[in-house]
Write a structure and sequence with these properties.
alpha+beta, three-stranded antiparallel sheet, three-stranded mixed sheet, unfolded protein binding, GrpE_head, chaperone, protein-folding chaperone binding
Length: 236
C-alpha cells in the first residue's frame, strides 16, 4: 500500500501539470528558428479579430450577413423604409437578382398604393369637413334672413345693439367662407336661382333678375342655398 501511494504521489504533479499547463505567447520580435523579424502588429490584430468575432453580439449577425450579401446596414434600412429603393443593390446570382427585383417591385407597389390611400383619405376628410361646415352655416341662414328683412324695413339702425349683433354674426360667417350672392340685373342662372315669379318685360332679351326676395349663399364652390328671385322674361 505504501508503494502504491508513493507511485500515485509521484505521478500526481506530472498529471496536474498537464491539466494546468500555462499558455505561453511568444512575443519575441526575432523568430528564434528562422531569424526573421516578426510583424507583431499583424499577429495582434488577428488575435483581436478572432476575439471580437467570438464575442460579437448576436444582434449584429444580421448586419454582417447583410453586408456579406452585398447590402450595407444603411441600404437595408433604406430598402425597408422605402427611401432610395431604386438605388438598392441587386447584384448577385441570377436567382438572387430576380428575387431582389421582385421584392423591389412589391415595395414600389405598396408605396404607390399607400400614396393613393393618403390622397384619397385627405380628400375625403376635406369633403367631410366642408359638408359639415356648410350644414352648420345653413342652420344660421334664417337668422341672417331676419337681419336682412329688418334692414330693408329700416328696423336695423346703425350703432344700435341689434345692428352690432347683426354685424358680428355676418363677420363670423364670412370668416368661415360663407358668401352671399343675388343682385337685381344679373342674368338668371337656374343652378343658382329659384324663380318665384316671372315678369314679362319687352326691354330684356334674356331672363334677368328683377328682384331678390331671399339671397343665396355659397361656401367655396358649394352652393349652400339658392337665391329666390323674381325674374324678368322677354315679352312675346
Amino acid at each position: 500500500m505504501a508503494e502504491e501511494r508513493n507511485e500515485s504521489e509521484a505521478r500526481g504533479p506530472e498529471n496536474s501539470g498537464e491539466a494546468n499547463e500555462p499558455i505561453i505567447n511568444d512575443k519575441r520580435r526575432i523568430d528564434p528558428e528562422t531569424g526573421e523579424v516578426r510583424d507583431l502588429g499583424k499577429a495582434a490584430g488577428a488575435e483581436s479579430a478572432e476575439s471580437t468575432t467570438d464575442d460579437a453580439d448576436p444582434a449584429t449577425g444580421e448586419a454582417a450577413e447583410a453586408a456579406a450579401e452585398g447590402l450595407s446596414v444603411e441600404d437595408l434600412e433604406k430598402l425597408l423604409s422605402g427611401e432610395g429603393a431604386e438605388d438598392a443593390p441587386t447584384e448577385g446570382t441570377p436567382g438572387e437578382s430576380d428575387l431582389a427585383q421582385e421584392r423591389l417591385q412589391d415595395l414600389q407597389r405598396v408605396q404607390a398604393e399607400y400614396a393613393n390611400y393618403r390622397r384619397r383619405t385627405d380628400r375625403e376628410k376635406t369633403e367631410a369637413y366642408d359638408a359639415t361646415k356648410a350644414e352648420v352655416l345653413r342652420s344660421l341662414l334664417p337668422v341672417l334672413d331676419d337681419f336682412d328683412r329688418a334692414q330693408k324695413h329700416g328696423d336695423l339702425v346703425e350703432d344700435t345693439p341689434m345692428a352690432v349683433i347683426a354685424n358680428k354674426l355676418r363677420t363670423a360667417v364670412e370668416r368661415l367662407g360663407l358668401t352671399a350672392y343675388g343682385e337685381a340685373g344679373e342674368a338668371f342662372d337656374p343652378q343658382r336661382y329659384e324663380a318665384i315669379a316671372q315678369l314679362p318685360n319687352p326691354s330684356v332679351t334674356t331672363d334677368t333678375i328683377a328682384d331678390v326676395v331671399e339671397r343665396g349663399y355659397t361656401v367655396g364652390d358649394r352652393v349652400v342655398r339658392v337665391a329666390k328671385a323674381a325674374v324678368f322674361v322677354p315679352a312675346s
